[in-house]
Amino acid sequence: MNTVTSNMKEEISDAIIRQDEQSLTHEYQEQGEFLALDSFLSQEAIHDLMQEVEHVRPQLNRNFIPGHKKGGSVSYFIVRDSAPSLTALYRDPALIAWLSQLAGERLLLCPEDDPHACALYFYTEAGDHIGYHYDTSYYKGARYTVLIGLLDRSTSRLECRLHTKDPSKETTELTLDTKPGSFIFFNGDKLHHAVTPLGENEERIVLTLQYVTNPEMGRFNRWFSNMKDAVGYFGLSALFRRS
Ligand SMILES: [Fe+2]
């Protein structure tokens, strides 16, 4: 194991030890498969990850869908090639085991051809945002999202609506900032969420990790998901790289 991987392993193990797994599992279920922690990874770990983020930043793909989203993304393909700590974090077996415990499901890595698997979202220009959406699973199983705040010098907020698909519960609205080291975990089909527009001279960078319960995908869903990624996130080059 190289130094980068073993350092990240230690950071993750320390982060998990600091948590009360039982109460967080309860909180996750009570909130309709959603959990937010102000602080998960240490500031030292975030500092190391940010060095890799700066290294891949020149490769970001800017995207704009009028009325829905504007921002920049770096795909898993670039992360995997150039950001070993981010990749080690995504693949860490202890992290996956802990998330599986919270979710009550055995979580798996996404297939290697999914550009969202471990990706970076950059909000760097005034007005960068994303409208309300679900992280819909195009897989045969469920899809789970982890968000880790890496940099936040912004007035931009993550807005969440819990229990939108559960008629027995009232919808709860939350407004969260994603400060460096913060952690959010949810079932993509359950959480309705958005990011409010970035102000002038502000910046916000978030890491996203995706896990699935079944990595198979039907042919139509594969096609639809590829098109959505090419237009909304990572550009056509990621599409060609994927196929
Ligand atoms: Fe999302």
- Provide the CATH top-level class: Mainly Beta
CATH topology: Jelly Rolls
The description of the largest β-sheet is:
12 strands, antiparallel
Shape: globular
Order of helices and strands: HHEHEEHHHEEEEEEEEEH
Structural features, described:
This protein has 243 residues and is of the alpha+beta class. It has a single domain (3-242), classed as Sandwich (Jelly Rolls). Helix content is 37%, strand content 28%. It is built from seven helices and twelve strands. The protein has helices spanning 3-17, 21-30, 43-56, 76-82, 84-91, 93-103, 219-242; strands at residues 34-37, 61-65, 69-74, 108-109, 118-123, 129-133, 143-153, 158-162, 172-176, 183-187, 192-195, 203-212. Strands 1, 2, 3, 4, 5, 6, 7, 8, 9, 10, 11 and 12 form a twelve-stranded antiparallel β-sheet that branches. α1 crosses α5 (84-91) and α2 (21-30) crosses α6 (93-103). The two termini are 31 Å apart. The mean pLDDT is 94. It binds fe (ii) ion. Residues 133, 135, 193 line the site of fe (ii) ion.
Q: How would you describe this structure in keywords?
A:
alpha+beta, Jelly Rolls, 12-stranded antiparallel beta sheet, 7 helices, 12 strands, binds fe (ii) ion
Q: Helices, strands, pairings?
A:
Layout: H1 3-17, H2 21-30, E1 34-37, H3 43-56, E2 61-65, E3 69-74, H4 76-82, H5 84-91, H6 93-103, E4 108-109, E5 118-123, E6 129-133, E7 143-153, E8 158-162, E9 172-176, E10 183-187, E11 192-195, E12 203-212, H7 219-242
Antiparallel strand pairs: 1-10, 2-3, 3-5, 3-6, 4-12, 5-12, 6-11, 7-10, 7-12, 8-9, 8-11
The structure holds fe (ii) ion.
Fe (ii) ion (FE2) is lined by residues 133, 135, 193.
